[in-house]
Design a protein that fits this description.
heterodimer, A: mainly alpha, Rna Polymerase Sigma Factor, Chain: A, Arc Repressor Mutant, subunit A, about 0% strand, B: mainly alpha, 3 domains, elongated
Chain lengths: ~180, ~200
């Protein structure tokens, strides 16, 4: 990022190549649309590029990046109703005695079905996540999925570490209640 | 000793390895002595594993990177164009153009108002009462052909502010002073009265 500040556009393209897929996935978990998630990821990177002159290397670049992305996602949720609206799933739940198999997905379907075994489990987890309040969902995803430390999550969300722990505890409590059968 | 309520809040972080060493040690110590909290540990660990492994992920579309490359190139081009404009570009900013236009208009209006020939002039030292000199003089000429009409230079004297100030303060008496003087010359008796009235 220091090189980007010095006008090195190629360095910025390297950052994009390194982090863009994770950012797309993070945004996807909020907006449930791949195309919109990709737009938001690009918007986040462009926003960072425009502000490169003001960038200060006080923390990791990923922390700064996720702060920008999280703000975009939370703003998007405030503008539109995304909660509970997931993309439709193809296939059916496994019945008793039936063996599961991974089928090649129809190209018209979301890629989630092409990438994961246990589609049903993943879908259930996503469904419960979509019901969480945005701040709880953000804290949980940033910490557990994106791998940020509690301090970094606190910087992203501009709250204290104690508040981060509290948000994650409440999110975890909801998930445990909704997914109790999967956790036995 | 950590309370159970506090420990439960710390448990997700403990399971995912996010706690600092001292907090993690406190949770560990509590778990050794509290069976109820130990019962919470396994489900929390399983959930942590599910979140790390079972959450759906997607791959960006094939055109994602190229679309961004185009947007970035456009952004860079726009910045370079803005910088190439230099002072010209800076001067042509809409807000600056508007400010210059407003300043120019204000300057023009000030100049107009300051002008002595303007009907809206702010110069209050001479009240602008329409001169009666022309009409009075002509009438006088009709009644008494001996009285000459005011020569232009006398009208100019009125216009140029050479009328005595006491006459100026009494608009009802405002007649062409030069006519009164002419009458004084022709008939000194009546002229005194008229001159006093003037």
């Amino acid at each position: 990022m220091q090189r980007v500040r010095g006008g090195d556009a190629a360095a910025f393209r390297e950052l994009f190549a390194k982090y863009s897929e994770a950012v797309v996935n993070f945004a996807y978990r909020f907006v449930n649309s791949r195309s919109r998630a990709e737009e938001m990821a690009q918007d986040a990177f462009l926003q960072i590029y425009r502000a490169r002159g003001r960038y200060e290397a006080k923390a990791r670049f990923s922390t700064y990046l996720y702060r920008v992305v999280t703000n975009l996602c939370l703003n998007e949720l405030r503008r539109f109703e995304y909660q509970g609206k997931t993309e439709p799933l193809e296939g059916r739940p496994l019945e008793n005695g039936e063996e599961g198999s991974r089928e090649l997905a129809d190209t018209s379907l979301p890629e989630v079905e092409e990438l994961l075994a246990g589609v049903e489990t993943g879908a259930r987890i996503k469904k419960v996540l979509d019901k969480l309040p945005p701040n709880q969902k953000s804290a949980l995803l940033l910490s557990r999925v994106e791998g940020l430390s509690y301090q970094e999550v606190a910087e992203c969300l501009e709250i204290t570490e104690s508040a981060v722990k509290s948000l994650i505890f409440r999110a975890t409590k909801t998930l445990r209640e909704e997914l109790a059968d999967l956790l036995r | 000793m950590m309370e159970c309520e506090t420990m439960l809040v710390e448990l997700p972080g403990f399971v995912s390895g996010k706690l600092d060493p001292s907090s993690a040690a406190a949770v560990r110590a509590h778990l050794q002595t509290c069976a109820a909290c130990r019962d919470e540990l396994v489900p929390t660990q399983r959930l942590d594993k599910l979140l790390g492994e079972a959450l759906p992920t997607i791959a960006p579309s094939p055109g994602f990177a190229s679309t961004f490359a185009n947007r970035l190139a456009a952004e860079i081009a726009a910045e370079e164009e803005a910088m190439a404009g230099g002072w010209t570009g800076w001067l042509l900013q809409p807000w600056l153009v508007g400010l210059a236009a407003t300043a120019m208009l204000a300057f023009i209006m000030f100049g107009v108002l300051k002008s002595s020939n303007s009907p809206w002039s702010f110069d209050t030292s001479i009240p602008r009462i329409p001169s009666l000199s022309g009409g009075v003089a002509r009438k006088s000429v009709g009644e008494n052909p001996k009285i000459a009409s005011n020569p232009p230079e006398k009208n100019k004297a009125v216009a140029n502010n050479s009328v005595p100030s006491d006459v100026l303060q009494r608009p009802e008496l405002f007649v062409d002073y030069s006519v009164i003087r002419d009458l004084d010359v022709l008939d000194s008796g009546m002229g005194d009265t008229e001159s006093h009235a003037g």
